[in-house]
Amino acid sequence: MRTPKTRATLLAGLLLAASALAGVNPPTASAAADPVTVTVNTRAGLATVPDTALGVNHAIWDSNLGTADTSDLLRDAGVQMMRYPGGSYADIYHWKDHTAPGGYVAPGTDFDTFMAAVRRVGAQPMIIANYGTGTPAEAADWVRYANVTKGYDARYWTVGNENYGNGHYGSAWEADDHPDKSATQYARLVVEYADAMKAVDPSIKVGAVLTMPGNWPDGITAGSDPGPWNQTVLSIAGPKIDFVDVHWYPGGTAAESLARVDHLPDATYLLRQQLARYAGADADRIGISFTELNVDAGRNTQPAALFLADVYSGLLENGVFTAHWWNVHNGMGAVTQVAGQTDYGDFGMLSSGACTEDGSVCQPPLNTPFAPYHGLSMMKLFAKTGDQFVRAGTDEPLVTAHAVRRSNGDLAVLLVNKDPDNDHPVTIDYAGFAPSAGAPTVSTLINGATGIATSQSGSATSRTLPAYSLTTLVLRPAGATAGRPTAPGQPTASGVTDRAATISWPAATPGGSPIAKYEVHRQHGAVSEQLGETTTTSFTVDNLVPGSRYTVNVLARDTAGRVSWASPPLTFATGSPAASTCTVRFTSNNDWGNGYIGGVEIINNGTSPLNGWTLTWTWPTGWQQVSSGWSATWEQVGTAVRVTPTADNRQIAAGGTVSAGFVGAYGGPNVLPTAFTLNGTVCATG
């Protein structure tokens, strides 16, 4: 959680209104020479937008939390979920007497006032139960008051905030009065909280705090815990919880934060792997929320707007059920210039009307929207409840794309130009969708703008994106969409081996004609590869690559040639052979948050010795590497690793082993390899 610098700064930020600085025109941008190719593929379906998608944080130090002006602004931006009582303050907050010992509580911020704001906005609440200085009984009483006494129907309750920040890993900012501050103790108490709260209202959903894969303290084991935070919490509390809650501040410069949005598919994949491995039976029922998001550079200016739209889209298309900005109001920070605009270093999306302590610089008047507010408003225009995300991609890292298809046949495309200096012309190709010849509805947020400009203009296939901008196109289909079959249901995978998998799915409902067949498509980025077709609701895919991740969709085609929208996505991973002439045991130990001590043990399962050997594997991401190694010669080119023997371990006897070690490093989610090749043979793994 990010909090105001001081109470004095906070009070100034929330109680003072000051005149705005004169606007500064953005620097003139030049146009990049070569058009960026954007591909939108409606055959590659992703997650569906839930009714909790767009979220924000409210904090009890914000005296404007309950005002009509604030609530109306949030409603206008499309806010669907509101979190309370405010990050780390949740672990010192006592709802009954509305106090937070050691912190500042503004007047007019009690729970009933918050709920009145939630109702005015038309949103749902997410409430943080006090873990750090509270008790399960206190949390249960809050549930009783909210849902039994007042009838608020508050569904989502998280146990604590950033409880791994209680000193257990050496850094302490989160209040925790428990003598035992381990992940094990947190998990045990989550069970007690869940039991006590659900005894009052069994219909609520209870969440536990996890760490973001690839970010401190992910991967670190402390004290006597059986493993890192996520593993420990899920192993104990998994059967009792309904969702997990994660925060992400990617840090770095504006360019670095915007680039790190690429981490999200692997981060959510790792979270789901951890749920499946540690959370017990029926782990698929456990949802994922990201309830604090923000940047370190350009918090009030265009980098934050671009990041918000890009990260909300990236999370939602990967099945996260809600994404929340930190914060609505927060307070003044360091004043800088970012891409020609004044940035106040304020984590809020609405101005608090603050001035610096010496009064030399003041924010715009209270509740003036900052750039991330406009980014959230763009999300309201782009992704509506019930829309299905579909795969979109580009051939330029500084331009990203997202897309959703709507039940009425429309397609919306969000284009993000992260280049602060250059306009980028783009050409847009569509797969599985033919846009009408009419001009699309175009919404644009440019650097320094005080709002989104919307018009009908241009074509569906080409345009120029202004530097540092968000652009949404809403397109009508060229032909009628009536009569097509419904999308097939959620596919599942069974019998997954190193080379094959059987995909099954619930049947589609016919439209104007009987269903003739189903097509199984694999996603390759924004391109689909048809793996096969069948007249049944099951298909076995062969010739898969060991140790690879696959995302597939199923489409139904009827006898008139009409094709359904894509099914929900299915992601699965192939493993290694059950038996081979070699076995590789890969280990990762002593993780310190961005690196670890790795090892490989090679076992010769054959009947003859190996005289000379070469072990290879490919890292799943571009931010993983071998920093150094021993007992072998280590080489890495791109993501490919090659390990060869030293003079004293060239031979591996029949049934014998050779071991080598390395220092592994990573700058994002650390997805470990699962397939290894020895002298051209894919090995089993142990």
Automatic annotation (TrEMBL):
<dbReference type="Pfam" id="PF00553">
    <property type="entry name" value="CBM_2"/>
</dbReference>
<keyword id="KW-0732">Signal</keyword>
<protein>
    <recommendedName>
        <fullName>Alpha-L-arabinofuranosidase</fullName>
    </recommendedName>
</protein>
<dbReference type="InterPro" id="IPR017853">
    <property type="entry name" value="GH"/>
</dbReference>
<dbReference type="InterPro" id="IPR001919">
    <property type="entry name" value="CBD2"/>
</dbReference>
<keyword id="KW-0326">Glycosidase</keyword>
<dbReference type="InterPro" id="IPR012291">
    <property type="entry name" value="CBM2_carb-bd_dom_sf"/>
</dbReference>
<keyword id="KW-0624">Polysaccharide degradation</keyword>
<dbReference type="InterPro" id="IPR013780">
    <property type="entry name" value="Glyco_hydro_b"/>
</dbReference>
<dbReference type="InterPro" id="IPR003961">
    <property type="entry name" value="FN3_dom"/>
</dbReference>
<feature type="domain" description="CBM2">
    <location>
        <begin position="575"/>
        <end position="686"/>
    </location>
</feature>
<feature type="signal peptide">
    <location>
        <begin position="1"/>
        <end position="22"/>
    </location>
</feature>
<dbReference type="InterPro" id="IPR036116">
    <property type="entry name" value="FN3_sf"/>
</dbReference>
<keyword id="KW-0378">Hydrolase</keyword>
<dbReference type="InterPro" id="IPR013783">
    <property type="entry name" value="Ig-like_fold"/>
</dbReference>
<keyword id="KW-0119">Carbohydrate metabolism</keyword>
<dbReference type="Pfam" id="PF00041">
    <property type="entry name" value="fn3"/>
</dbReference>
<dbReference type="InterPro" id="IPR008965">
    <property type="entry name" value="CBM2/CBM3_carb-bd_dom_sf"/>
</dbReference>
<feature type="domain" description="Fibronectin type-III">
    <location>
        <begin position="487"/>
        <end position="577"/>
    </location>
</feature>
